[in-house]
Design brief:
The protein is mainly beta. It contains two helices and nine strands; from the N terminus they run E-E-E-H-E-E-H-E-E-E-E.
Length: 119
């Protein structure tokens, strides 16, 4: 089963680079532990350029216990985050619609539902 890092990503046409933006980072998640923040723009995943939100999500997800490294843009500065260990967390990709924030997406199924933000 593929696992995520505890973040929701979304496509923003007006953002720089790939347009793939971190929309939410779950408290206590591997993404939070390594310093990923809402608003970060994902430029690359494991040194491969970010190309579309679905491809980025598939690249972030992987077997539990493996790692992923992200190159991000934050406040005009590029930085590398990771390696982040994949675990019992979801990584969501979404469009701008509030009801979709809590829906699991293939291939990363939500496993830690208790970690999802409350309404």
């Amino acid at each position: 089963m593929t696992q995520g890092i505890g973040a929701a990503i979304e496509y923003h046409a007006d953002s720089p680079g790939s347009g793939v933006v971190v929309e939410h980072v779950w408290p206590g998640s591997p993404a939070e532990a390594y310093g990923l923040e809402s608003g970060d723009v994902i430029l690359a995943v494991d040194r491969a350029p970010a190309q579309g939100v679905d491809n980025v999500k598939r690249s972030i997800c992987g077997p539990e216990g493996t790692t992923v490294t992200l190159r991000i843009l934050r406040n005009g500065e590029q930085m590398e985050i990771g390696p982040i260990q994949r675990g019992n967390w979801v990584t969501l990709s979404q469009v701008r619609h509030p009801t979709l924030l809590h829906m699991p997406c293939q291939p990363c199924q939500a496993v830690s539902h208790s970690h999802w933000p409350k309404h």
